[in-house]
Every structure is written in C-alpha cells, then in structure tokens.
Design goal:
Blueprint (H helix, E strand, L loop, with lengths): L1 H62 L5 H9 L5 H26 L8 H4 L16 H22 L9 H20 L5 H11 L1 H5 L3 H18 L8
Amino acid sequence: MRVINIREGIMNKALAEFIGTFVLVVFGCGAVVFSSDVVGVLGIAIAFGLAIVAMAYGIGSVSGCHINPAVSLGALIAGRMTPRDFGIYVIAQCLGAIAGAAFLVAVVSGKLGGYDVAVEGLGQNGWGEGYGGGYGMAAAFLFEVVATFIFLVVILGSTHASSPVGFAGLAIGLTLAAIHIIGIPVTGVSVNPARSLGPALFVGGQALAQLWLFIVAPLIGAALAGGLYRFGWLQSKP
C-alpha cells in the first residue's frame, strides 16, 4: 500500500506540473500571440505574472508549483527535492509547455485572415537583429542568468519555512511580472527552459537554433541561487 501511495503522489505532482506549465504558456505566450498590439509589454508581463499567481494557489499544495525546470534545479541544489522527483518534474514541465504551445497553434490556426506561426511567431524567445530591441547574444545570456538568479532568490526565500505563510505566490508572480517589464525587449524573457522549448518547437528556424541559450543561462542562474541556499549564505542563522 505504501508503494502505491508513493506512486500516486509523484503522479499527482507530475500532473500538477504539466497543468501549471501548460497554463503559463497559454496565458503568457497567448498574450503575445492574441493581444500584444492591445496590451503591450506591460500587459504581457502581467499575464505571465498572473499565471504564476493563479497556479501557485491552484497547484502549489500538490507540487509546490515549480512549472519551470530552472526552479526545480534550484530546489534540487538547495536540498528541497530528490533527484528522482527533479527528473519527473522536468519531463512533466516540458510536456506541459509543448501542449500549451500546441493549443495556441490550434487556436491561432483558426484565424480567418490566416496566421503563419513561423513568420508571426508564438511568443518565442530570442535575441539579435530583428528580435525585440536588437540585443546581442552576450547581453541576452547575461540578462537570463541574472534574471533567473533573482527569480530563484525570491522563490527559495518566500517559500522557506520561516517566511510568512500564504504570500509566496503573490511575491513570485509579481517578481516574474517585473522581470518581464524590463526584459521583454532583450530576450522576450525566458527564465524557464520549458517555456522557451514549447514555442520554439513549433516556430522552428531561428527560435530553435537559439533555444540553447534559454536552457543553459536559466539553469546557471538557478544553480547559483540554489547554491547560496544550500550552503546557508541566504538563510538566517540561529
């Protein structure tokens, strides 16, 4: 019976992570695809932030609402999850992001005037001439590392046992929104390899060629933050 309960528990977490990442991509990238000309940068930033807030309170009690491989890596390094759970979380998150992107493609394909995903995009991340503000690779890499580091510091700090109960979702969502406000012109903001993977697979071309940066940079930023918590440098001493 114990084995069955453990299996059911991890499957519940995996399902929660799948749904949460699906919602993040649908809300955030959906704001780019359907409403960017109306809501602008601020509206897109709020959409990503609200997706996190909604899922934090919707699935947080089930899986912790990582919905981001970088967050899971930070939690792993900080000693808050097992390697087995980390692997399962990442798979569920990537599948959820792909499903979210597929949903957006299915909806936008019904646009009567037509919509070429490869040309008009799907909220994919990128850098260089012709993307956003035209920032170079070095700037994009630096931004993603530092932004993810900040994001993980907020996540690991606000979810610590000594932090006020009930406010983590709001703090994390607002932080993600703030990161998007400043970073959308630079990379479109990833800080989440799964969020970048889903749209890139459907857009292809340059989005897929540049995907490596939105995997490597967020993981570096997350590892740095996780290490600070692992060694107690960002935790109060008794």
